[in-house]
Amino acid sequence: MELFQQIVEATVAGDQERCVALAQAVLDEGVDPLEAIEQGYTKGMAIVGDKFSRMEYYLPELIRCADAMKAAMDILKPHLGKGQNAGVPGTIVIGTIQGDLHDLGKNIVKTMLQAAGFTIHDLGCDVRVRSFIDKAEEQDADVIAASAILTTTMAYMPDLVNLLSDMNLRDRFKVMIGGAPVTPEYAEEAGTDGYGGNAAEAVETAKALVQSKKGGK
Question: Are residues 120 and 157 both part of a single domain?
Answer without folding.
Answer: yes
